[in-house]
What does this fold into?
Amino acid sequence: MNLFELQGNVTLVLFLVLLVVKGFAFVNSVLYPTQAYPAASRGTKAAWTIGLGIGLVAHLLLGVLIVNLAFTVAALVYILDTRPALAEVTSPR
It folds into this structure.
């Protein structure tokens, strides 16, 4: 295996991992009810869903480029911050 093959394999793995992260964030954002977002003080469902959807489409069309860094950060913020807040608001007590 030469250096170019290794680089191609690493890029492919990175592409797939980020695709799964963005896909999970998008699908999960669709599943929560619209009222949960303002109740958790996390903006609106439309903003999150549209932003994550655009990020997912951009990832598919553009691949792993620096422009996708913002969309990756948004997906990670959703998964690590917004999703737990939504789960707390929507969980039965």
Observations:
- The CA atoms of residues 52 and 87 lie 18 Å apart.
- Helices lie at 3-31, 36-39, 45-62, 68-90.
- The chain has four helices and no strands.
